[in-house]
Structures are given as structure tokens and as C-alpha cells.
Write a structure and sequence with these properties.
By secondary structure, this protein is mainly alpha-helical. It has 24 helices and six strands. The protein has a six-stranded mixed beta sheet with strand order 3-2-1-4-6-5, with helices on both faces.
Length: 495
Amino acid sequence: MQLLVNEESRRPGFHILEPAAGTMNIGSLVALAILVTFYLATSLYISSHRLLWVDEVLTVLNTRVPSWTDIWKTSTQGVDGLPPVYFMVVRIFDNLFGHTDLSIRLPSALAMTAGLLLTFDCARRVTDGLHGLVALAVLTCSFLPYYGHEARSYALYFMFASLAFWIWARDRNESPRGAALFGAAFFLAVAMHYYAILCLVPYAVWELWNWRPWRLPSRKTIAALLAVGCAAAVLWVPIQAGRRMFPPGFWANPSLDLLRHTLPELFPDGLLLLAVVAVWIALAGTRDEITPLRPMLADERTGWFFLLIPPAGYLLAQVTHVYQLRYFICALPGIAVAFACWVWRHFHGARRISVGIFLILATWGIAKQVTATLDPNRFYYSPVRQILGMEDVLGKDGKRFFVVCNQGRYIEARHYSKHPEEYALAAPLDAGNLHEILTLAPYHSLQLWTLEDLRNRARETALIAPLPSNLETLKQAGFQTTIRFTKPFEVVYLE
């Protein structure tokens, strides 16, 4: 491929002065500090201003059970589906920083920041500081920043996937210490999310690519396999309990349509950004320059193998019955590093092109994060504020109990209300699986009402946002209902 160096470079004895691989100038260092600080600060801001959504409230309920052993106990009963180790990590932060929404989300914000730095350094070591920034900017244009302010394990899962790649790329001498650290990173990744087993895929393909009849697998690969096996053995009971939560026909069942949409959803604006980058390359390049194309680096080749993680996840989901986009967040570090290495190989003689690519990606990522910061609740609408705002009005009507027909709305409203004991879930009216709520109810005094409970407290009860099917069920059970409010949501009184 012909690319960019001026005519003088063809003269005998002329050499292009390029930064040596692994170098980092002051400009790259300043840009890195600004970007990392920006994403950490905005993630913390969003964490403290965005309402927890239902899965995050489940994290709270699992984390704030009375004792550490109760975390393990609930996980063995199939609550939530995430490993108990994650809830133990969150419990440490929650106890240290005062039982707030921010304390629950803090591990994710810190983990995302650490993963950004690790991915940057992976690319920087084999290219230079500028292309390390390109790798970081690629991550900011993915769905990753969302998980920097979500109280789930995905950001920590991403961080340990980044750490494993960083160790693999750094330790080329196959030292016992490097193998042990690589295995530890895999063990911790699986302890954060069971689908971390997929992190083995790119390294296994690397081993097959370099296979020779006389060559044994590398120490790091063996260590990773042992670590995954050990983690699975330690967490086997929670794994089996979690698997029972997802029977065949589960709503996230794998399909070829989901597989086709995985990459566009990992990078929601990827096609548009690639088009802009291509236009920039066309504008910034000149016809009188040429530079030899460097060979593909081992890090780049392995990074491209991370693209095989979603197809491998599709095969795994045939067994687990769950194909969720966020489960493949571990693919991001390798893809980002591979792209940065590709840019470096092709445009190392024309840094203005690399600078432009970095600025395009970084600007887009910053703009999206600023939008999320200005409106922290933009990406998840919950009527919980309106529900809480109705408490006084309903109380004046003599209503002492606020009964919700949807478990998600119930646990959200209960979490934020100053009087959680006034809320109850009408279990017969909820069409979902109540296993998690039933398991956690003894630890948090969750109220699950039967139709008989509704009948006994009918005059003191306000039914919050019922569906037509809920009202029909009540009518068939002999209840008389009166609509008290229709806005901002329907409130029904029982007679």
C-alpha cells in the first residue's frame, strides 16, 4: 500500500525521523491525563445523579444483605446471575463510602478508568503515545462509557480482560511470573462475570496460528486454562444456580440476528466514524509520498482475534440460553489495540493522519459523554420520581400502602422512598419470574402481597400504574376499582 513520505525521502542517505516504538512525548502524556480525568470525573458525576435502574437496585439488595456469607448463600439460590465475588467487592466500597448510589457505582467508574489506561499502554508499548491515544479513543466511541456509571460487573470484567491482554503483550519471554499473573487476571475476570471464559478465544486462536508439531502451548495459555478451571470449580454452585435462571426460550436466547447486530452495537456509531476517518485520510494524504508498510505486529494480530469473541459467545449461548451484548465487553481492548496498531503501521510516516484520526474519535467520544453528563437519566426513563411525588397526595386520601404491579418499578420505588415499608408488590398481578424477589425478601423485608392481602387492606391501598390485564384480573377476583389519577400515571383505588 502506498502512503505518504515526501520526494526528498527517496534520496540516498535520507531517513525519516520517527518516534521509536514505545515512546511517549509530553503532548501525549497531557492528552492522556485530560481524557482519563474527564471520563473518571464525568462517570462519578453521572453515578451520583442518575437513578439506579432495576438491575442496579438488585446489586444493592445483593450487596446489603446482613452478612458476607449471605451474599454467597443468595448466589447459590440463583439470585441475579452475577458471581458473588462482584457483590463482595461492591460491599467493600459501599461500607467505606456510606451506602450511597455513588458508592455502589464507584467500582465500575474506577475499573473503566483502569481499563482505559491498560489499553492505552498496550498500544503505546508497540507503537507510540499518539497511537496509544488512538486505542483509548476507540474505546470511548464504544458502549464502554455507559458501564463506567452502572452498578454491574461489566466494567470490572472489561478491566481484567484489559489486564490479561496487557500482561500477554508485555511478557514475551514466557516467564513463570508472567504466566502466573496472566492466570490471575483470568481468574479474577471469571470471578466478575462467568462469560469471561470467552477471553480465552483470541489467545487460543493465536496458539493455533503459531502451532507446530514440536511446540507446546505457551505457559500463559496453560495458566489461563488452569485459572478458568479453578474459578469454575470455586464458583460451580453459583454457576449452576444462575444457569437455572435462564431456561430454553429465555428472552435473550441466541439468534443469528443478534449475532449480526453485535459489532454495530459494540460501536454504535462505528460505520459513521469509519466513513469520516476515510474522508480524512483522503484529504490529508498527498500523492508524492510513499512509505513501506510494516509487518503486522503480534499484538495487532491477537487484537483482531478478539473479533471472534461474539461468534464464540453465540456458540456458548446455545448452552446457556443467554446472548447479551454487554457480555462481550471483553472484546473491546483487543479491537482498540488492533485498530491503533493498524493506523500506526500504515501512517507512521504521516503523523498528521494519525493525529486527525485521534481527534475525530476523541471528539465524538467526548461529545457523547458530555451529553450523558448534562442529562444523566437520558438513557433510562423511570417513573420513580413521579411515584414518590404522589406519596403525600395519596396519603391525604387515607392510603397507607402503595401497591405496584411490576417488580422492577416496585424495587426502584422502594429503594428511593423514605418510607419503603409503605410499598408492596402485588405478586399475582406480576407476570414475571419472582424468584429473585422471593429469595431476597427475608433479608430486606420485601412485601409481596396476595389477592387476599389486597382484599384485607383495600380501603388503605392505592394501586400504582396497573396494566389493563391487572385490572381485568382484579375484576375477575371480585374487586371494584376506581381510577383516581390518569397522569403522570394511572392510580387506582380498590373498593
